[in-house]
Amino acid sequence: MNWIWVLFLIIVLIVLCILFVGINISFMTEYKDKKFHLRLRVYILNSIFGKDIKFNKKEQSDLDNTSEESTEEASEEKTEESMSFEYTDNGEKSIKELISRLKAAFRKYLSYKDAFFAIRDKIRKKLVFKYLNISIDYGDGDAHTTAVATGTMWGFIYNILAFITKTATVKKHKEIVNPRFNERVFSLSVDGILRVRLVHIIYAWILFNSNYKKILNRRTNPQEKKKGV
Question: How many domains does the chain have?
Answer without folding.
Answer: 1
